[in-house]
Structures are given as structure tokens and as C-alpha cells.
Write a structure and sequence with these properties.
nine-stranded antiparallel β-sheet, 4 helices, globular, alpha+beta, two-stranded antiparallel sheet, 30% strand, 184 residues
């Protein structure tokens, strides 16, 4: 009988692993897996300066919108939608951390670039300044190209200044700035 108890105790001690140890190990492993998204499978052409071929893919007009304002919206329409800006020039309208920059077409200011410097707005896929690169890659997938401090999603036409897309500037872990452009 003593032998049976000894075998049972030995078996129990070998196969019993406390659940708090399992949870700790699992949490750490999951954290490493999530952290790997910051580095994994985001290889892309290294620079926008190579204009010998088209880069990326076209995004829809919905993707190129912030705070309900689409690219090429007239400044008057932006003000009608969002109210009076905090700061205004002929080339820009600023609403908190969102600045709409424009170009003049036939004497009318139209939005051609939107900069977001804080969490005042999110992209069409729910990404905001302060979100992690993990969240960005989860929402948008592999970038169309990567430069040292930003990921680009969108399209650049070869041998031209045509660019339509989103730039996500980052500090290596978090998004610090979002820029949406449409230059045709």
C-alpha cells in the first residue's frame, strides 16, 4: 500500500502543473506573439523615391476620408459640415488635431491633404494616433511600402506626382501622425 501511495504522489507531482504557472507562461507567449506583429511580414519597397514603377494599390474614396470629409471637398463644405475652424488660412483649415490642406482649383480651396496629430479622428478602418503598429497591420495588412518612420498604404503612379494614400508615421511601436493625401 505504501508503494501505491508513493507512485500516486510521484505521478501527481510529475503531471500536475499549477494553473497560475500555465497562465503566466501563456500570457508571456501570447505577448511575444503579439509583439512579433510589429516586426513580422511588413517588408515592402523601401522608398517612395523609386518612381520607375507604380507602387501600391488604389484605395476607395471612403478610405481617403477623415471626420466625414472626403478628398477634394471644398473648404466651404468642410466649414458647413464641421463648423468654424480654430485656425484658417487660404491653404488650410484646422480643427483641433485635424488640419485640412488644400489646393486652389478655379479659385476654390479643395482638400488635397489631411493631417491628424492626435486622437481627434480615426481612419475609415478605425486607426488613430496612439494606436500600435500591431493594430495598424491588423486593420490594413502589409504596407505598400515602408520608410524609416512611416508605413504607406495606397497608390503612387510611376513617373508622376500622382499619390493617393495614407501615411502612418510611427516611433517604432505607436502611430504618432496620420497623413492622408490625394494628389492627382
Amino acid at each position: 500500500m505504501g508503494r501505491f501511495i508513493l507512485i500516486c504522489m510521484l505521478t501527481f507531482s510529475v503531471f500536475y502543473i499549477p494553473s497560475d504557472v500555465d497562465a503566466s507562461w501563456l500570457s508571456k507567449a501570447w505577448g511575444r506573439l503579439e509583439d512579433s506583429l510589429d516586426r513580422a511580414d511588413t517588408h515592402a519597397p523601401p522608398s517612395i523615391t523609386d518612381t520607375r514603377k507604380d507602387i501600391g494599390r488604389p484605395l476607395s474614396q471612403e478610405e481617403l476620408k477623415i471626420a466625414g470629409v472626403p478628398m477634394h471637398a471644398r473648404f466651404e463644405d468642410v466649414k458647413a459640415s464641421l463648423g468654424a475652424p480654430q485656425y484658417e488660412t487660404k491653404e488650410s483649415l484646422q480643427y483641433g488635431g485635424i488640419t485640412f490642406y488644400g489646393q486652389l482649383w478655379q479659385g476654390l480651396g479643395r482638400v488635397s491633404r489631411i493631417d491628424v496629430s492626435n486622437r481627434d479622428a480615426v481612419t475609415a478602418r478605425g486607426i488613430a494616433v496612439g494606436d500600435s503598429l500591431k493594430q495598424l497591420v491588423k486593420a490594413y495588412g502589409k504596407p505598400d511600402f515602408i520608410k524609416d518612420d512611416y508605413y504607406f498604404y495606397g497608390y503612387q503612379q510611376a513617373y508622376s506626382d500622382v499619390i493617393r494614400g495614407l501615411y502612418f508615421t510611427h516611433d517604432g511601436k505607436k502611430i504618432t501622425h496620420i497623413r492622408i493625401v490625394r494628389y492627382d
